[in-house]
């Protein structure tokens, strides 16, 4: 089933955090996400046009399961975005400047092969894993 719409539908993702103020600092200040509605138990963020919701759920702390992809341990589960290369490079620099501890340092994988991509992994303060990637050719996003 092919869904190649000209405009992407905004994605909605709710995920657990153990501290809303730390989530607000990470997603709001560091990542630059505009805050939407909030309560004592959750905060909506505009994540590059997508709606993500940090829900206070201290018991649901992340586990550290990883799968190996191209010789790297990739955290599972994880979420993130595919950015344009210049936006990816700017974000990587911003995160480096902020002293971010990466799970996987900003790097280019599958160099010269279909699906060549820049990627980086990091965790938010609650341990949720995020991946940001960019493709030399965005048309390669679903290359096999």
TrEMBL record:
<dbReference type="InterPro" id="IPR029068">
    <property type="entry name" value="Glyas_Bleomycin-R_OHBP_Dase"/>
</dbReference>
<dbReference type="Pfam" id="PF00903">
    <property type="entry name" value="Glyoxalase"/>
</dbReference>
<dbReference type="InterPro" id="IPR037523">
    <property type="entry name" value="VOC_core"/>
</dbReference>
<feature type="domain" description="VOC">
    <location>
        <begin position="9"/>
        <end position="135"/>
    </location>
</feature>
<dbReference type="InterPro" id="IPR004360">
    <property type="entry name" value="Glyas_Fos-R_dOase_dom"/>
</dbReference>
<protein>
    <submittedName>
        <fullName>Glyoxalase</fullName>
    </submittedName>
</protein>
């Amino acid at each position: 089933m092919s869904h190649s719409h000209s405009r992407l539908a905004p994605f909605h993702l709710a995920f657990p955090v153990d501290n809303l103020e730390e989530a607000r600092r990470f997603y709001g200040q560091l990542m630059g996400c505009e805050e939407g509605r909030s309560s004592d138990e959750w905060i909506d963020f505009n994540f590059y046009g997508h709606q993500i919701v940090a829900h206070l759920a201290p018991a649901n702390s992340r586990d550290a399961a990883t799968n190996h992809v191209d010789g790297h341990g990739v955290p599972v589960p994880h979420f993130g975005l595919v950015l344009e290369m210049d936006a990816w490079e700017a974000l990587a620099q911003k995160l480096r400047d902020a002293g971010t501890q990466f799970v996987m340092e900003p790097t280019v994988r599958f160099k010269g092969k279909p699906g060549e991509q820049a990627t980086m992994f990091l965790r938010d303060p609650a341990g949720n894993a995020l991946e940001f990637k960019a493709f030399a050719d965005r048309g390669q996003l679903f290359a096999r």
